[in-house]
Design goal:
mainly beta; about 90 residues; five-stranded antiparallel sheet; globular; 5 strands
Length: about 90
């Protein structure tokens, strides 16, 4: 898994962004942030307006990798481009 990965559900209504933290926590663990979002007008193949962010999770690298793999094996696909504006 790279420092950043974008997944979009095949119906293109839901998406997730997996982003590696730049710095490890106090215990030395580097976490992956997972941000979930939806777009009632469906995600485009690139930056999409009208995106609603829902929840974020902080996962270990192993758990995030498992989430990514299991998502791709089911009804999610990898987006080669970002799906919403980030700061």
């Amino acid at each position: 898994m790279q420092n950043e990965s974008w997944l979009v559900k095949k119906d293109r209504v839901w998406a997730m962004r997996l982003l590696k933290d730049k710095h490890p926590d106090e215990d030395g663990t580097t976490y992956i942030r997972v941000h979930y979002a939806s777009c009632r007008l469906r995600f485009l193949h690139g930056i999409t307006p009208h995106v609603q962010l829902h929840e974020s999770q902080k996962l270990t690298y192993e758990k995030a990798r498992d989430l990514w793999r299991s998502s791709v094996e089911t009804e999610w696909e990898v987006s080669k481009k970002p799906l919403w504006e980030t700061s």
